[in-house]
Amino acid sequence: MMPNITKGDRMIGLINYLVGPGRANEHTDQRLIATSESIVSVEVGQRLYAESALRLGRELDLPRSVFGTGTTKHHVFHVSLSLPADEGQLDDEAWGKIANDFAEKMGFTGSDGKPPCRWVAIHHGSSKAGNDHIHLAVSMVREDGTRWSQHKDFKRAQDACAELEVKHGLRVVRGAHAERGYHPKERERAAAMGAPELDRDRLQRAVRAVSTASLDEAEFVRRLRRSGVLARPRFATGTKDQIVGYSVALKPAIRGERAVWFGGGRLAKDLTLPKLREGWNVTPETMAAALSEWQAAADGKRISAQGREAHEPTAEEWAKHTAEVGALYERMKTIPLDDDALWAQIARETAGAFAAWSLRTESVPGPLADTAKALARTAQLRRFPPRIEHAPMPSAKGAGMLLIQTAVGPSTAAGHALLLAQLRNTMRAIHDMHQAAGGLRDAERVRDAAMNKLTLVRGNLKALQEQHEMAHAAVSAGSRWLDAAPRTESEQEKVQRLVGQSFPHAPAAAASAPGEKAQPSNREAEAKDRRRNR
Fold this sequence. Notes:
The chain is of the alpha+beta class and 534 residues long. Helices cover 50% and strands 9% of the residues. It has helices at residues 11-19, 50-60, 62-67, 92-105, 153-167, 184-193, 199-213, 217-226, 264-267, 273-277, 284-299, 315-332, 340-361, 367-379, 397-405, 412-437, 440-453, 457-473, 480-484, 489-502, 522-533, and strands at 2-8, 31-35, 76-82, 119-123, 133-139, 229-235, 243-250, 262-263. The protein is elongated and about 80 Å long.
């Protein structure tokens, strides 16, 4: 929650503005949601009009009029409390509680033993940028004519908001985690083009996906270009062989249109090149290969070499990386709550795995993209502490590689379901961390993604299953598809059990949709055919 403070000397003018249409006609359904005890001319919950605004303004200004205190300047304190646009909206009751708590912490209510100030809180439509917010108008002249102290009022307001974020389960804006804000023009551009998401969100998802799936920087550049993203390096000043950053852009939809470029740090705090390099193999050989790939990208030439991104993962790799995610979940149980850097690293990898899956399967942002975005918040710290070397840990990077490049095969649906179950376990650990640390809104977002968004992924798994059934029907029994990665009933049961255990009452990812009859496996169908033929 973000406080924005201004001061002035025209109380009636301020109330008229808050009750009026606003600068861009954004003020709609203006109503009073909380007041100090001395305000009696308008009841809480009442719709506000010009006439009631005049009464409120005069009533708020009464102590100054009686005592003549603060007649020179700045006796009107105005603060707006707003939520980020993607935080959603609160009802009047919730905002009323926040307004009363904020007034108390700022010393407006008299709870500190001093005479109270007169104040009102008004709620109306969202801002031009889409932020739900309220306004508090306060007389800085107390009921006895003394002045309310402005000493460090900006810091006091920020500290009050930080406490109220935790108390009311809001996103902790000034906590350990912080995201980049959006410029209104980014939203206007997306709306004008009818795009399903902002350019920056699409690029962040792509960079997060390919960086997680890559072992080194050269592979990262190749995967970026294979995903259709434009990429260019940023060289250190005066050099042509020392890369210190990068920029990415989407290919313009209209010929001749200029691409809009974003540096890694503008995408997200954890996607700068130095942060990404912490998760890659960095040797003189890999840096030389990366330089070659960056130069090819800058010159618009073909990639310099082919890597593992051009090959389909084997059944052994599926088993290995799925088991590694399970081992990661067990290790997460021992991580201290205050090890923000390590939690951010794990969240970045887990978000990257879901982003990779989304990049490969969702033509428009869907539940996988939403899940990646929910987790990505935990990966972005306000300040990254110096890197601490930990003992080798399991990782979700292998899962990202599997999900970004695996072709449809007979065991794809079962393999994805098992991997999904393991990834949901890591989400559960991240949820528990936020909850224990007091980040209730972040914990709720992760839980919502696991409980609601990922249940929709069952449709994707069902589609994969149908495609694999078609492939199976086109080849004979015992073909290379079946031999490559057999599906057994015990594996299916294990998938359902693991997914069901990820979160209490969560529907199993591999289970049939409600109302659908469970379909027998290929081996069961073949056994029935043999019995009938006898």
